[in-house]
TrEMBL record:
InterPro entries: Ribosom_uL1_bac-type, Ribosomal_uL1, Ribosomal_uL1-like, Ribosomal_uL1/biogenesis, Ribosomal_uL1_3-a/b-sand, Ribosomal_uL1_CS. Belongs to the universal ribosomal protein uL1 family. Part of the 50S ribosomal subunit. This is Large ribosomal subunit protein uL1. SUPFAM superfamilies: Ribosomal protein L1. NCBIfam families: rplA_bact. It comes from the Bacteria.
Amino acid sequence: MSKKHSKRYNKAAEIVGSGKSFSLVEAISTVKKLPAPKFVPTVTLSFRLGVDPRKSDQMVRGSVSLPHGTGKNVRVVVFAQGAAAEAAVAAGAEHVGYEDLIKKVQEGFVDFDSAIATPDAMAEVRKIARVLGPRGLMPNPKTGTVTDDVAKAVKEVKAGRIDYKLDKNGNISGAIGKADFDEKQLEDNARAFVESVVRAKPASAKGNYVQAVTLAASMLPGLPLEAATYATKASA
């Protein structure tokens, strides 16, 4: 049974058209002209990659600091104690703790967007991997969320650093801002994300690495980007 869309969505789909690809600049300009829902939509960039997510040597993950942030108030928890915990509080983390915070998460607390931990806290944090992992919240050295400099990590996350990871279908997606950002801000953020994903290409990946990229805003149809937006960078 096909899903029925709202009149607003269908109108937006008519503007986007079918079978058309957009340059990044065209896609951003078009997204900002679409009939939006009653809230300010989040703009996301989604990648389909030519890697096998079942192979550990083809896992793609990383982080990127967006030049203009995401427009979202990022809620951060930090697993640390002592001086590191004090530094995390001073940097603006919403929740800071160690065994008490781990117990709170075990009891169901997941009301946060990013988790950071000091290396010495990870032995205990691994006890809640089953809670954090499926939500993409498990601290990881590769994304800079396992670090002794928790204050720097908190500031970077809150300033607009996004972490990304390949899903089981070989896709990556992330927010690059809000629909009320100006076009140059969205373009700068999008290019930073594209370049980061391209740099994260596994050495074992063969063939066409970035197969497709789509720009979309919440509750609106996606706009496929022209291969030139990413193909030349991907082969570099």
